Structures are given as structure tokens and as C-alpha cells.
Amino acid sequence: MKILCGFFCITLALSHSTGAADMNQAFVFFGTYTVGTQSHGIYVSRFNADTGRLSAPELAAETANPSFIAIHPNQRFLYAVGELGGGAKSGAVNAFAINPVTGKLTPLNQQSSGGAGPCYVGVDDAGRYALVANYGGGSVTVLPIVPDGTLGTATAFMQHSGSSVNPQRQKGPHAHSIFLDAANRFAFVPDLGLDKVLSYRFDSAKGTLAPNDPPFVAVAPGSGPRHLAFHPNGQLAYVVNEMACTITAFDYNAERGALTELQTISTLPKGATVQPSYSCAEVRVHPSGNFLYASNRGHNSITVFAIDRNSGKLTYVDNQPSQGKTPRNFNLDPTGAFLLAAHQNSDNVVVFRVNPADGKLTPTGQQIKVDACVCVKFMPTK
Q: Which of 85, 14, 10, 8 minimizes the C-alpha distance to 370?
């Protein structure tokens, strides 16, 4: 294992004004659930990277169930899933143009996600494709991005099949996210229903997917893999397992697109056991590459791990109450100085300061109200 080096959805879109006072101002976009809530769509707030302060959120675009969002690398466009289920054959993916002064969003177009319940969207580093995971449909779709930011018709669709050990949660496939490696060569899909992280070869010229060899890596039965985070050194990956409340660390062979398990560790503090109301949601690696964070719903906390610089394995550091109910999503600002935790069931986004020495979190006392908030995205400052 090579020495680990510095790092990696709260996505910051910077205001384009040129005054010195605006240099550390950014937009933060929030995805939400709108059905059965007071939310109306995607919200935007201004973030001060010096103080960690967030302005009162404003409605950026009215749209149905934008539960996960992604920002184009050029910072001009935003993409949001429309997480539709309830028997719907297909959800939606919506494209928006970002106003660089106000952060408000203008609808561009909409495409089918190819399956029910889309729960994740990401954009490749070249900004040519949006990759979507359909939880209800158990599938993944690739949509081309036209130069004007609109979405074209699908260039790839992969339907998963199979099941795992939990009859309530794993009767069929549930693709929960899709992540490209740093070279844009391989795509990885944690599938909660299969207890597998599927691996695909990605053709970045054609926007196509093909099963890799090996085609997947399995996690422990009943784990329910949800999200994945690559380490900035490109040689490690970490998967958060929703149902088991664990993190699985993998060595990553970038030539073969192969993951090899190194360790599986609980996200709960010592002495705590998994309860029926507990589940994990998000995993992030600190920009320094030294720390990893995972959120625990039900337990309502964020756990901090240290990453060993030689082995890549994790060591428990701390468990911080998240200051709300159901921390569905969180993110670190690009400097790594602050962490923003979004709570689905208490409608608040809480700001924590990160200790650069040990990675521990301290509440700043700052928070804002965002109804049913389930995604936070920063876009790096230009």
C-alpha cells in the first residue's frame, strides 16, 4: 500500500462577483423530499467558508422529490433525481441551469431514469454523462449531457437481478448509488438488495457500461451496501452498509477495477448494538485523507474514524450526536474545516467544526431549517 495522501455531494457553487469580500462565499444546494412534507423542491443557501455560517435557505427550484442532486464540473448545471415510486415504472432525472448570482435554478429538461425510485445521480469528471441508480427498479442508467446542459436519451441501462437473506429488504435488487473511479474507467454500484458492489467497465466516449471481471465483490449477508467513497490516493474505497451499520474497507486495484476487502468495522460506539430503528446513510473521506465519517440514522450520530496511512484500515475515534433526527446525508466543505449534517425527520441542517488533528466534530451552534432535507452538495470554489 502506498502512503496515503490528501483528498474528496454538499456542493459549493461560487458567486461570480469579483469583490474580495466574496472570495469565501459559496452556494450550498439541498435536495429534499416533497411528498407529505412542507418542502417544495431544491433549496439554496450561502455558505461562509471562514465562519461556517449558512444564510436562510431559499427555494431554488420547485420539483418533486429531488432526493439526490449533483453539480456539473463547469458549475453551470445541476441535476436532480425525481424519486418516484408507488408502482411507477420510471422515475425522472431533471436538468437545471444555475444562476451564478442568485443560485436559483432554471429547468432545462427531464429524462426518464429508466426505473422506479431513482435515489442517486452523479456526473462524470468530464461532464459528459449523468449516472443514475434506481433503488426501486434495481437498475442503473447512463444519460448523456448535451453541451447546453440538457439530458439526452439513455446510452446505457443495466438491470440487476437476484436477492439476499433479509426477506423484508432484500427480495430483489436495490441499486443505491453509482460511483466512477478517478480514471473514469470503472463504475461501482452498491446494491442493498444483493449484498454486492457490482463493477462495470465504463466507456467514457460512448457512455456505455459492461460487466467487469470480476463483476462484483460481496459483503456479509444482510449488510445492505448503500454508498461508497474513494480515498484520494485512488487505492482505497469504503462502503457504508445501511442494514448492518458497518463500514467495509477495500483495497482498490485501478488497473483491473477490482475491490479486495481489508476490514469491516461497526459504525456504532463501543457497547452499542444494532437496533431495528438503526441504519447507516452516508460515508465521506476527509480532504486530508486522514479521516472517515459515517452517519447513523436512529442512533442519530456521526462516527469518526482514523485511516491508517499504511494499511488503509479504520480505527474508531469518536461518535458525535448529530443534533437532529435521521441524519440522512452530510458533507464536508472543500477545505475540510466544516461538516454539514442534514436531518430528514427534524428538518434541520447542523454545522460542525472539524478538528484537523484528530478529525473530531464540535457543534458550532449554527443550524438552519430545511424541511425533509436528504442531500447536501458543495461545488468547489474556482
A: 10
Instruction: Return d(Cα 81, Cα 176) in angstroms, integer.
Output: 13
Convert the pLDDT of each residue in 63-113 to its tens digit: 999 999 999 999 999 999 999 765 556 799 999 999 999 999 999 999 999
pTM (predicted TM-score): 0.92
Q: What is the DSSP letter of 355?
A: P
Question: For residue 33, which of 98, 93, 100, 83 has the smallest C-alpha distance?
Answer: 83
Distance, in Å, from the CA atom of 269 to the CA atom of 319, rounded to the nearest integer, reads 6
d(CA 175, CA 196): 10
Distance from C-alpha of 253 to C-alpha of 199, rounded to nearest angstrom:
12
Cell of 274: 444494532
Cα(330)–Cα(322) distance, integer angstroms: 10
CA dihedral 362, 364, 367, 373 (to 10 degrees): -30
pLDDT tens digit sequence for 16-47: 333 333 447 789 999 999 999 999 999 999 99
Give the H or E element holding residue 378: strand 373-378
User: Alpha-carbon distance 229 to 43, whole Å?
Assistant: 25
Beta-carbon contacts of 22 under 8 Å, excluding residues fewer than 6 positions away, are 15
Q: Which CATH superfamily is domain 12-17+24-378 in?
A: YVTN repeat-like/Quinoprotein amine dehydrogenase (2.130.10.10)
> Which strands sit side by side in the sheet containing 236-241, from one edge to the other?
225-230, 236-241, 246-253, 258-266
Tell me which amino acid residue 58 is. Answer: E
CA dist 181 and 126 (Å) reads 12
Q: Helix (H, G, I), strand (E, B), or coil: what is residue 21?
A: helix
Cα separation, 360 vs 278, in Å, equals 22
Taking the domains of the chain in order of start, what are their residue ranges?
A: 12-17+24-378
